[in-house]
Every structure is written in C-alpha cells, then in structure tokens.
Amino acid sequence: MTIADTRKNAEHKMQQSIEAFKNSLTKVRTGRANPALLDTVHVDYYGSMLPLSQVANLSLLDSRTIGVAPWEKGMGAKIEKAIRESDLGLNPASQGDLIRVPMPPMTEERRRELTKVVKGEGESAKVAIRNLRRDANEALKKLLKDKEVSEDDERRAQDDIQKLTDRMITEVDKLVASKEQDIMAV
C-alpha cells in the first residue's frame, strides 16, 4: 500500500461517513413535511414487511401535509396503521383513496430538543472522521516502519490527511448549522 492509496482510502471512508450523516439528518423532522420522513415506515404486504415507498406513492400536498396514495385499494388501512404505530408521532387521515399525513406544528421546546439531537449526530460523525484519520496515520507509520517511505514523505502525508480531516469536519459543521436553521425556522 502506498501513501496515495492510504489517502484515497481515508478520503473515501470519510466521504461515506458524511453521506451516512446526511442520511441520518433526513430522519430528523423539521416543521415542514418531507416524504423522506416516511422512509423508515414498513407495511405488512401479504406477509412480508416492505418500505412504504414500495406499496404507495408518496407526495407533498402542501408544506405541512404528505399524501400517501396506495397502489392497491385494500392497503389503505394497513398503511394508516403502520404510520400511526411508527415512532414518528404522526396521525394519518384517510380521504377516499388518499391518505393525508399532516405534520403537527412543533413547539419551541421540541425544536430545541431536535437541535440537540442534530448536534449529537454531528459529533458522532466527527468522531468517525477522526477515527479514520487515526487509522490512516497508523497506516502511514507502518509504511515508515517498514522503510517503504521516507520520514519527510510520511510527515507530508500526515499533514495532508489532517487537512482532509479538517475539510470534512468543516463540512459536517455546515450541515449541522444548516439543519439547525431549518429546525428553528417557524
């Protein structure tokens, strides 16, 4: 393994950590409706549990309402039950073939709780990135120990890994700040 391989590997894994963090942020509810909020809901479809998006069409009816249109007529009640029993705190209402899922307005206290959750998720992402930096630096030290690179090259590579880490952590901070602003906007 070379210095370039080590750096590329670290950058790839750090990018994956940021993608995982972005994915976890989509699950944090803001005041606005977002069909991605229902991604975690699974429905009993003839004995197997399927994601809601595989048995119904999800759409935004307005800024505070998600529309769920089941693909089969008999699925409406099961979908309603699955949404109600999910830990999202939503109360769907059936309107003919369409199920409306209104987003309850968030209280100031709930908004503050969610910003704490977002900050915690951000810290977890930063820890993951720092762990990847540590792993990359250990790989570089091993290359130096095995006399495959010079001390100068190893030092430059560690500085490069540190700059990469700083850039990724800055990106996480920006994502956290953006999500907090989203949550606190009334």
TrEMBL record:
Highest taxon of the lineage: Bacteria
Entry keyword set: Coiled coil, Cytoplasm, Protein biosynthesis
InterPro entries in the cross-refs: Ribosome_recyc_fac (IPR002661), Ribosome_recyc_fac_dom (IPR023584), RRF_sf (IPR036191)
Gene Ontology cellular component list: cytosol
A Pfam family it matches: RRF
HAMAP family registered for this protein in UniProt: RRF
Family according to the record: Belongs to the RRF family.
Function noted in UniProt: Responsible for the release of ribosomes from messenger RNA at the termination of protein biosynthesis. May increase the efficiency of translation by recycling ribosomes from one round of translation to another.
Protein name: Ribosome-recycling factor
This protein's encoding gene: frr
